[in-house]
Amino acid sequence: MQTIPTYRLVISGGGTGGHIFPALAIANEFRHRYPSSEILFVGAKGRMEMSRVPEAGYKIIGLWISGLQRSLTISNLLFPVKLLVSYFKAADLLKKFRPHAVIGTGGYASGPVMLAAVRQGIPTLVQEQNSFAGLTNRKIGDRVNTICVAYDGMSAYFPEQKVKFTGNPIRSTITSASIHRDQAIRSFGLDPSKKTVLVVGGSLGARTLNQCIASALKTFTQQDVQVIWQTGKTNYTEMELLLRQSGVSVVKAIEFIRSMDEAYAAGDVVVSRAGALAISELCVVGKPVILVPSPNVAEDHQTKNALSLVARGAAQMVRDKEAAQQLIPAILNLLTDEEKQRQLAANIRLMGRPNATADIVNEIEKLIQPISK
Questions:
Q1: How far apart are CA 315 and CA 309, in angstroms?
Q2: Residues 255, 226: contact at Cβ < 8 Å?
Q3: 303 partner at 20 to 30 Å CA-CA among 2, 208, 228, 277?
Q4: Under 8 Å CB-to-CB from 296, ≥6 apart: which residues?
């Protein structure tokens, strides 16, 4: 009987769900293949990974690191100090943990960890989620061993020989979901006989989407439309109060949806920001979607993400600055156009990469197996 090897893996990335959830998906797949292996996460103190990762059953160490702000702040002045302190802490951590490989999924903490790994000669892999590569990944891309991407044309940012087209890793609960629509809708306390819209603004929420939904509560009642509404932590108290004061029962406000498999199954139409992780999940579940790209991201990469789907007839898009006037009519029009729903769902499903997580772990194995023999 062949013995399953034991490896040590460090995974760094965070700041938003778009970096955290791919990291967790990779960790889960690696742990599935090598159950006795040790997996250590490194994140940024005070960021959401410091709670999300332990909830998923992994140990995490936080670095004193944050991103640069757009204006002159004390945080910006401290950035070089934070970077230096974080680098030395990461370097010390790697020397003590002795990982077989270090994986970076982007975010503040990823930079110093990946740089320390490269300088110590540890095999490294970067997973870039977006069509426009993030700053951290761009800075270290020419130094790491392998770069897994989800969009064509990424050799514009990285050495072509290092780029592997794998797609984005998504949660196994999404790829293996088999829940029925009616059952999913009932799990949210809603009526399966009514048309249902799922609104998700990312793990932190999206104020534009929240304001649009809040302004249309009575409209949804009049149109006999149900809404499952992830508000995000920042606006939840305000939005939930508005909902209670309105007396509207067809809209369910939720701070953070943990059972996204049920949420996707429940939605006849999905309204979402255009983050890379959200798009990757939507491609796998194959739902008609209206994307509202966030304008508050580097190089407007969410618009680039969304346009890549629109060009293939796989999604509709409403620009953030036009959402107040156009989003609710777009939702109601799509709900009544079943043929358009079918076309969008079929086209977006063609873009799905359900095996992305496994393909990325295959690339990790290529890095660690030669040195472990």
A1: 6
A2: no
A3: 228
A4: none
Q: Is 101 helix (H, G, I), strand (E, B) or coil?
A: strand
Q: In what order do the strands lie in the sheet with 124-127?
A: 59-63, 38-44, 8-12, 101-104, 124-127, 146-149, 163-165
Give the residues across from 101 on adjacent strands.
9
CB atoms within 10 A of CB 221: 16
Distance CA 166, CA 355 (A): 8
Q: Supply 189's token pair.
A: 């306390």
Q: What Cα–Cα distance (Å) separates residue 250 from each residue in 109, 125, 257?
A: 41, 45, 17
Tell me the per-residue pLDDT of 50-66, one tens digit each, with 9 for 90 and over.
Answer: 999 999 999 999 998 76
Six-digit token string for 290: 């209206």
DSSP-H helix ranges across the chain: 17-33, 49-55, 74-97, 110-119, 135-140, 172-175, 181-187, 207-215, 217-222, 236-246, 260-266, 276-285, 301-310, 323-336, 338-349, 356-372
In Å, how far from its chain's centre is CA 212?
23
Q: What are the two backbone dihedrals, phi and then psi, of residue 59, each rounded to the nearest 5 degrees?
A: -80, 140
Beta bridge partners, 38, equal: 8
Give the pairing type, strands 251-254 and 38-44: unpaired
Lowest mean pLDDT among 4-13, 59-68, 81-90, 318-327: 59-68
**pLDDT of 373 strictly over 80:** no
DSSP 186-204: HHTT--TTSEEEEEE--TT
**Tokens read off for 99:** 């990982």
- Contact in structure between 195 and 334 (CB atoms under 8 Å): no
DSSP state of 263: H
What domains sit in the chain, N to C, each tagged with a CATH number?
Answer: 8-168+354-372 (3.40.50.2000), 173-349 (3.40.50.2000)
Count the alpha carbons within 13 Å of 124 in the hemisphere toward its beta carbon: 26
User: Which long-range contacts does 176-184 make (Cβ < 8 Å, 24+ apart)?
Assistant: 177/261, 177/264, 177/265, 177/285, 179/261, 179/262, 179/265, 180/265, 181/265, 181/266, 181/268, 183/265, 184/262, 184/263, 184/265, 184/266
Structure tokens at 89: 């802490």
